[in-house]
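Need tokens for this chain, all 507 residues.
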Amino acid sequence: MELNELEKIRAEKINAMRSQGIEPYPTRSEVDHSIRQALDAFAQFEADHQDEPFSETFILGGRIRSIRSMGKLAFAHIEDGSGRIQIMLRLNELGEEALAQFKDYFDLGDFIQAGGTLMRSRTGEVTLLVSSFKMLAKAVSPLPAAKDEEVDGQIIRHATLSDPETRFRQRYADLAINEEVREIFRVRSAVVRALQRFMDSHGFIEVETPILQPIYGGAAAQPFTTHHNQLHQDLYLRISFELYLKRLLVGGLDRVYEIGRDFRNEGVSFKHNPEFTQLEFYWAYADYLKVMEFTEQMVSTVAREVLNTQKVQFKGQELDLTPPWKRVELRQGILDACGIDIDQYPDAPSLLKAMNAKGLTAKPDSTRGKLIDALIGDLLEPNFIQPTFLYNYPRDISPLAKNVPNNPAVVERFEGFMGGMELCNSFTELNDPLEQEKRFIEMGRAYENDDEERHPMDEDYLQAMSYGMPPNGGFGMGIDRLVMLLTNTTSIREVILFPHLREREEE
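Here are the structure tokens for all 507 residues:
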């Protein structure tokens, strides 16, 4: 790689170290404690032995986050995955040659191993008094940007990184510099584990279904396409787990769930990424009403386990996840919002005319389902700040759901919203194979000129249903959006380690 001037200086330091027999990338490390373990041990000792010196030795490792040099002393802060600590390198303990090596060769971003005992500095900060040290990995490239801060009359250099473009393209640097970003992904990991514990504790088993599928289905979305050379077969990256998970209900696995990646060839926004993580589950002998109760219990339990609270801040507002959540019937919600009773407009032209009369615009060639989706997205979703279930959807946008009894135009479906965005989706699942085949055909006709929304016929899924599928409730939730809500993060890019980005213009 081509080095800039700063990188050339660091490369020269690598050569100088090797010329003196110092390996900047040694094979072995002798680190024996994490920084957190050392700090906890010191805190416990101080609590038990207030007037005695602390004599236990530690060998710690971490990245140098700040450096301050002065005459016969040098201070630095180092950081590992567990925390941060100050280290002090003093002429009396190390000797002139070793102290000079530290000052000459060590920079921000380098990984250092430092051994010694813990003490408190003059300012009261817990500090490792270093008796030995070595380079573990020399950083050739400086961490992006740097900030000078004056402390006790001395200038300390800190790495900083705030530019979103650089942060997302170089997530490794973002994580290395910004502790709050690392905390988001610690929370994300804890959320996934808490979801798994909750599902497992309610008798569900976690499974894995194919990512490469010969027929995509389970959602209205455009897939990514690939090709298997050996089989001479086009395949699709899955857009949903649904149809495979419901096959397992046929096979006698009554409660199944999967947490994994889905892929949709759609637009990018603050709440959309082409690949994203979902939880989906299917629950035999349940319906959407049972799933509603289960959902509010699940989300509130996860928040309590991970954050120790059921009230979270999001975009300056407090969201209360405590059950029960508000419930709004879709027809009534739209009627209250704009005065349109969608049941009075059974087709797209009449509904579009009613919308235009209210000053609401939509694409003239939209299906009735898309028009209703637009009403939800424009009028209802942004105003659902507190957790809310919107339920009973039109059949023409929910081809896999059961009808509400005695109402063939409406199906048992709900979506969960909070913070002004959709979080989850659920159906009382259709288990009549003949009706399902009819719905597939209807959807094919409705979207025959719209490849993006077409729901293809899946003959094998129909075959599975024909063996008998128990009545069941199905559910899907975006893990990324849940983490956004629990971490007060307003962009999905902040909660995905490596979000998809456009190519740089110069590329």
